[in-house]
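Case study: Transcriptional regulator, TetR family.
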Amino acid sequence: MLVGAGQLLATDGSRYREYLLPSPTVSTTTDGRSTRWDAHRARRREELVDATLRAIRQHGATVGMDDVAASAGTSKTVFYRHFSDRNGLYAAVAARVDALILRDVTSALGATDLGASQLDGDGSPRRLIAAAIDSYLRLVERDPEVYRFVVNAPLLDRPAGGDPAGQVTSHIAEQMSAVLAAALESAGRDTAAAAVWGPGLVGMVRAAADQWLTTADPMPREVLAEHLTDLAWGGLSSAWPTPSP
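Here is what the predicted structure looks like once written out:
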């Protein structure tokens, strides 16, 4: 059974929710005050994430907590009250970026069901792969400082050698694996390889995007997306052999 793109590309950032929300408590009240307070806290966290993104865009990816707090018109203490520490704030920003990338991929796919209309004429998912690659690069082009913040994580306390953006890219990789598996299933082929193709594809695009950001005279996004699609499809196309004339 084919999977709907809306199911494949959920944008709620739920894999980060354990970092963002306190453990649920059982309320003994029946007047809804606890529910209203939880809703208020959730809205406040979203406002603080918005302020953090503004500070990143204004001051760059190496923005400090003083500038982040100033952007929100509040103190660092308020941020730590809602996110516990800088790691919690980073997780919230990463979740937002994750959701934006997946939203853009969903929009690029342009349909709610991964069916024949979403595949190329030969039944292959080349167009889907091209759309996903371009969507990733669009965010990098549109919001380079925010992307650098997520990838480099200047606020994050972590052991040396860690990969701060690993959860974001792994989430995207899961979605790409699901898309590829659905396309393989549609073609009546074994879907096992999709589990490694998704991470491989996302890793390739991320590495190219990181290099693209540091290039003094970068090629246009559309050209880079085409090159990466050609490279990826050069390996994947064997799973969708061209019918003999």
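For the exam, be able to explain this: The first helix runs from residue 5 to 8.
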